[in-house]
Amino acid sequence: MPDRNAEARVEVDPKLLEILVCPVTKTTLRYDRERQDLISEKARLAFPIRDGIPIML
Length: 57
Fold this sequence. Notes:
Layout: H1 14-19, E1 30-32, E2 37-40, E3 45-50, E4 53-54
Antiparallel strand pairs: 1-2, 2-3, 3-4
InterPro entries: Trm112-like
GO cellular component, one term: cytosol
Pfam families: Trm112p (PF03966)
């Protein structure tokens, strides 16, 4: 079964990933390429990436 999100996946700029931090804890984020999320382990939150733009509200 094909992955429905495969077409929507856009690579995130590695430089952007280096500077982004969790807005709650100010700790680093882990990039989950498969789910297209930025994960804050400390806050136990996931921030989705839509069209290459992290949604961190």
